[in-house]
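Hey, quick one: can you model this chain's 3D structure?
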Amino acid sequence: MTSRLRSLPSQSRAAGVSDDATHKRPEPVSFLAQVRKDFRRHGGRILNAGFVTLLVYRLGRWANARNNRLARRSAQKIYGAISMVVSTVTRVWLPAQVTLGDGFHIIHAEGSISIHPDVVIGKRCGIMHNVTIGTNMIAGVPKIGDDVFIGVNSTVLGNIRIGDRVRIGANTAVTTDVPSDSIVIGSPAKIYPRLGPFVRGDADT
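Sure thing. Here's the predicted structure for all 205 residues.
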């Protein structure tokens, strides 16, 4: 029995099966490629507050990823100085520690936006202005799924999970888990099932 188990890895290799084949990881997107996508998503305007915010965020992620300690600390200091100025002007606080999926869109940046450093946001999420995503008196922050929209003047607080394809309406305070394919409205929030699937286009993200 033991010899049979020991022979399994070699058999799988002989059959052309490898760990890499069964657990493929997506190739990392380059800094410039991410910036180009952010630029197009935010109207192709260099001074768009949403684009500028994401540009600084990308710079912070790039700085934190430097392998050389001296290079990393130098890049982080440059990022910190730029981030302080930009966040004060735009009133959008998006720390480099936040985990963002592809296609994140700051739809309107006319008001303040604050996102806690530990927040995780999925792919193709859009947020309006005057939005806060963070803690709720105690430790723990939201984890937000894919294709989520967060309306103006809304808060998403606490150690909660927001499912995929959720729409959070304007002036909504969310402090509980929200299942996928839901609409959330009001303060305190009321959760309703969506009547139909998300309509998604083929826009470049």
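One thing worth noting: The chain is about 30% helix and 20% strand.
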